[in-house]
């Protein structure tokens, strides 16, 4: 697909508008017409640039992550995980959680959204987490045969999903730092 060139600033504005609209109306009610109106752009331009609503939404979410996991390398697993947890402030974390809850519901009826989430958000994050964990194994911080290595993504996603269900409180940095110290690091033998 031929993509037009947007300045990083303009692309950031478009993505911010998409996330705002998504938070206001949800995925199902979000339309390319509404995005075009909010961003003062044409619907044709949006489709030429992103191809589909699903791709636009997921790329906006991806753009919202200031640092990719694979880029984080502090020299220790504890430092890497803390850097991951501190890359998003509590306010943004709560907003992201609300958006992801809405999208988790929407993927059941939207295979294009599911595919875009898998390809553009979930797989890159899982690959980045795998690289982060592999560096810890290579440094000797974690045994390569530790069975918990395969479940770190599940542990982290579970923490994000369960906090609100169990405690009726949003996920925040303090909770995640405590969770990692109490659950993830002991499971990895760190």
Précis, in short:
This protein has 190 residues and is mostly helical. Helix content is 72%, strand content 0%.
Report on the structure:
The chain is mainly alpha-helical and 190 residues long. It has 2 domains: 1-64, Arc Repressor Mutant, subunit A (Orthogonal Bundle); 67-190, Tetracycline Repressor, domain 2. The protein has helices at residues 8-29, 32-39, 43-50, 53-63, 77-86, 90-106, 111-138, 152-167, 173-188. The longest helix has 28 residues, at 111-138.
List the helices and strands and how they pair.
Layout: H1 8-29, H2 32-39, H3 43-50, H4 53-63, H5 77-86, H6 90-106, H7 111-138, H8 152-167, H9 173-188
Offer a few descriptive terms.
0% strand, 190 residues, mainly alpha, elongated, Tetracycline Repressor, domain 2, Arc Repressor Mutant, subunit A
Order of helices and strands: HHHHHHHHH
The domain count comes to 2
Q: CATH superfamily name of the largest domain?
A: Tetracycline Repressor, domain 2
What class, by secondary structure content? mainly alpha
What is the average of the pLDDT values? 87
């Amino acid at each position: 697909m031929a993509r037009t060139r947007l300045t990083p600033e303009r692309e950031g504005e478009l993505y911010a508008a998409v996330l705002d609209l998504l938070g206001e109306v949800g995925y199902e009610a979000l339309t390319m017409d509404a995005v075009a109106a909010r961003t003062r752009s044409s619907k044709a331009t949006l489709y030429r640039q992103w191809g589909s609503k699903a791709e636009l939404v997921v790329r906006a979410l991806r753009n919202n992550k200031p640092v990719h996991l694979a880029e984080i390398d502090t020299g220790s697993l504890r430092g890497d995980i803390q850097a991951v947890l501190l890359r998003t402030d509590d306010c943004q974390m709560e907003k992201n959680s609300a958006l992801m809850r809405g999208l988790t519901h929407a993927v059941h009826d939207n295979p294009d959204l599911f595919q875009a989430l898998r390809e553009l958000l979930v797989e890159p994050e899982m690959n980045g987490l795998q690289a982060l964990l592999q560096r810890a194994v290579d440094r000797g911080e974690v045994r390569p045969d530790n069975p918990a290595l395969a479940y770190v993504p599940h542990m982290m996603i579970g923490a994000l999903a369960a906090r609100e269900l169990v405690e009726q409180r949003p996920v925040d940095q303090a909770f995640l730092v405590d969770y990692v110290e109490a659950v993830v690091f002991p499971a990895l033998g760190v």
